[in-house]
Structure formats: structure tokens, C-alpha cells
Amino acid sequence: MRSLPQSFTLSLPPWEILHAATLDATGALAAGERLRPVEHTVGRSHAAGFDTVTPRCHYDLSDLPDGTVLVVLGTNRRYPDRALLVRARECVPIPEVEAEDLLDPAGARCRAWQRRVRRTLLRPEPVRHTLGPGHGFEADTLADWQGEEYVAACVRTTARQVWVRAATFEEAEALGVA
């Protein structure tokens, strides 16, 4: 077995695959170009009567500039398991949200708005909700919903019912609340 070169390498199990990060059509984090391992190794140990085999794939990252965002695909192979940032010759795990913002800073506000709306479970089409009398909703306004401010677009109201849908980013931006 040859020794690894004295460069910046990342070691992963073989069922995890390293990719350059990109954004898909919806603006979510996705896997881009696949990085190829430079070496495969197998570690063996024996403890308490059991043999343990730990295969590893080693990726050479010395050519990547600082600020490069990488993603690791696990057994799912459709969605990234985690994101990594190359910084000062080390890979630092970062949240998916931060990785998306590093890849597309211009779309950060829109993605933040979409996360706010998703937390409320509102849909793009109006849904009728039955509330008590004096609910305070007014038609054609943005209202608070499920603890999030100005995410519900109130379409129609009656004395005991309200029809709301998720406010779009464009509506919220026009009103200055996004």
C-alpha cells in the first residue's frame, strides 16, 4: 500500500460520494460534477474477537480554491446529505442554507422567504379555514399565520371563515416585508 501524497485530502467511506455543489432549478442545493477519489484504502482491526474492516476513499482537494462548496451524497444519491466548505486547507461542515447562499447570494432573500412560508404549511392556492367570529382577517391583505409575520395572503373572508394562501415573494417584496 502506497502512502497518501502530502496534500490536502478528504477521507470518506465508499458509500458516500463527493460532488461539487450547485443549485437545481428550484434553487435548492444539488450535486454537480463528481469528484473522483485518488486512492482507496482498507483499514483492518481486531478487537474483542471481531474483525473490523473500514474501507475509505481519499479525495485530493489541494487544487480547489478557498470558498469552494462541496456536497456529500450518501446512500440516497438524490439529495445531498451534507455540505462542506473548503477554507484554509480544511473542509468545514456548513448548513445547507449557508451553502445555497454562498452559491447564489442574489437569491438568498427569496429562499429565506420560501422557508418562512414553508414553516406555516400554507399552499399557493387559497384554502378555507373556519375561525371564530371576529377573527380580524380582511380580504386582499397580508396577515400573520402560525407565528410568521405577513406570510398569509387573505383572499376572501366571511364572519366565520377565511380563505388564505401563501404570499409570493414578489407580493411580500412589493410591500417591503420580505
Structural description of this entry:
The structure is a single chain. The chain contains three helices and twelve strands; from the N terminus they run ββββββββααββββα. By secondary structure, it is α+β, with helices and mostly antiparallel strands. The protein folds into two domains: 9-103, no CATH class; 111-175, no CATH class. A hairpin with a 2-residue loop joins strand 10 and strand 11. The radius of gyration is 24 Å and the shape is elongated. The chain starts with 8 loop residues before the first strand and ends with a helix.
Task: Sum up the structure in keywords.
single chain; 178 residues; alpha+beta; 2 domains; 5-stranded antiparallel sheet; 4-stranded antiparallel sheet; 12 strands; 16% helix; 45% strand; elongated
One letter per element, helices H and strands E, the order comes to: EEEEEEEEHHEEEEH
Radius of gyration: 24 Å
By DSSP, the count of extended strands is 12
Low-confidence stretches: none
Number of domains: 2
Topology overview:
Layout: E1 9-12, E2 17-23, E3 29-34, E4 39-47, E5 50-60, E6 69-73, E7 80-87, E8 90-94, H1 96-103, H2 108-120, E9 127-130, E10 141-145, E11 148-157, E12 161-166, H3 169-175
Antiparallel strand pairs: 1-5, 2-3, 2-6, 4-5, 6-7, 7-8, 9-12, 10-11, 11-12
